[in-house]
Amino acid sequence: MPGCIVAEDEQLLRESLVDLLREVWPQLDIVAECEDGGAALETIAEHQPDVAFLDIRMPGLTGIEVAAAAAEASPATQIVFVTACNQYAIDAFDKGAIDYLLKPIARERLAATVARVQARSARDAGALAAIIRQLGGVPRVSDTPPLVWITANAGKETKLILIDDVAYFQADNKYTTVMTHDGEALLRTPIRDLLGLLDPSVFKQIHRSTIVNLKAIAAIVRDESGRGTVKLKTRPETLTVSQPFMPLFRSM
């Protein structure tokens, strides 16, 4: 039985796509539903699905970034982008071996996409790379300016912390630990909610539970197994880079 994942941060749209998939492709096993790019990438690496339906605009990693990393983590997974992008982006998709669904998703269009996916044995990784180059950039999940500062609790003290001073964020149950050169504080915001509020050119997800400030990185070390470790400039601890995320740091 073929398997797939669906990655879409808006719950109603995700549920609608899942329902339509069950109608037009009843043999498909939907192994996971994801709400952000980091979770999607790790799920693809874990389950090696036949196909992944990826929203382009997701918190954290965009759908295109997930697809680029998935080309190494799960090369046989076919990609279908779910998009509200402009015609320029759609033209780029039409030139490659990549399918797309335009929101709102029509049942007939999904059925045609499913037929194309079923007719192909695996997606063309070279075509995906060319599409990424042609797109150039990917829109942020939010049109609002990125955060400049946050307030977080350190014991009984509430601290005002400039985003530039944050070395990394780490998930702590429903909250987030904020690590700076001076120490740590607790932010009463889940890490997933932070993903769409940070500047993606500065803050990168390296694990489902960790977001690092690229300016705080001293080095990235890859071991023989392909796992990565981040060394920081101003803090002694090292951070683990989840293996599926390593391709995102190749250019560093």
The overall number of domains is: 2
- CATH architecture classification name of the largest domain: 3-Layer(aba) Sandwich
Biggest sheet strand order reads 2-1-3-4-5
Radius of gyration, in Å, reads: 19 Å
* Total strands: 15
Principal-axes geometry comes out as: elongated
State the fourth-level CATH superfamily of the largest domain.
Answer: Response regulator
Provide the residue-averaged pLDDT: 87
Which strand-content bin applies to the residues?
25-35%
Low-confidence region ranges: none
Sheet with most strands: 5 strands, parallel
- CATH class of the largest domain equals Alpha Beta
CATH topology of the largest domain: Rossmann fold
SSE pattern, N- to C-terminal: EHEHEHEHEHHEEEEEHEEEEE
Structural class: alpha/beta
- Give me the number of helical elements: 7
What is the first-to-last residue Cα distance? 39 Å
In helices, the fraction of residues equals 25-40%
